[in-house]
Each structure stands twice: as structure tokens, then as C-alpha cells.
Amino acid sequence: MIAYQELEHVLKEEISALQELHRQNRIMLLPLRRLNAKQRDVELTYLDGFLRNEQLQIVHLACHAQEKKPMSQSYLLISDDFSITIEDFFVREFAIKHNPFVILNACLTGTISPLYTSNWAALFWGRGARGVLATEFHVPDSFAAAFTGVLYQHFLSGKPIGEALIETRRHFWTGKANPLGLAYALYSSPSIRIAK
What we know:
By secondary structure, the protein is α/β, with parallel strands linked by helices. It has one domain (2-187): 3-Layer(aba) Sandwich (Rossmann fold). Helices cover 37% and strands 17% of the residues. A five-stranded mixed sheet has the order 1-2-6-7-8, sandwiched between helices. α1 (8-23) runs parallel beside α5 and α5 crosses α6. The longest helix has 16 residues, at 8-23.
């Protein structure tokens, strides 16, 4: 789990829900430690090592995404004041070695801008992710936290990610008349499941 804890609902809901799943032995949670922006090179090397961990089946990023110009300077704020840019991905040649599924729970991680083909989902997929779940537009932090809580209930029950995503969207649409589940796009085969 990679989390920017300054987002209120990430800290109060999303992280605590993932920690509870860990306590119940439903997931093995490996949180990324806080990164120090004053030691950027050291921390980027540490992040690269974290992404190469063979124990990772899911890499869950609960963070803040920001579009910048030029596009290569668009970034994910992943830890306190520590951001990672699209350029960092190319320069550092980050690799996700053991093909985990990546959940990018931040705004605009699927489509940063319709004028560019580069986006976070494509970067993670190109670096070795088995698949990516990303957002196509701005999603309130409170909804993002609630959405992933329901998504994990379905995904960890043995349903493939495509079915888990549909069931989660349906939960918010039929139960709350909330269409924001449509913000989440799947960049993978819908048949991916969690191996036990």
C-alpha cells in the first residue's frame, strides 16, 4: 500500500479498512514507509525496490494526482510532500517485477488529458503490472475510500476483478443513486483473480 495520508478519507477510512483486512488475514499489507523529500534519490531507489517485492499481489495507491505542463511533470503525491512524476518513471526505469494488480485510487490516473497518450495506468501496465484499475476523472476523496472498501469485499470473495468492479458500481448506483463508480476504468483482462 502506498498512501498519501494528508487526504482525510484516505487516513480515516481507506487505510483503516485495509489494515482491518490485514488483521483478519484476508490480505497481507505491506505499507510503504513515509518518504523524505529531502533525500529524493535515496527514496526513489527505495520505492523502486518496494515495487519489485515478490510478495505483492496488489499494489494499492491511495494518493493525489496532479496534471502539469509539460505532461512529464504530472505527478502522484504518494507520501507527505513526496511526489513521483511521469518523468521519474522513465528516467528511473521503475519495474514492477512480479506482475501485481495495481489500484490507482487517485483522480485522473487513467486519462490525464485527452490530448496525450501518456497516463499513469499505461505507465504501470508498461512496467509490469498484471492490470490496473484507474480513475478517468476527478473523484471525491470520500467516495474513493468508500469505493475501494466495497471493491475489496467483492474481489477478495473470489470474484474476478471485472465482476468485482461491476458489482461495486452497482452497489453505489442502486443503493445510493451514485454514478461515480463509472469513474473507475479497468486496464486489464476482467478475469484476473486473487490467488490464495
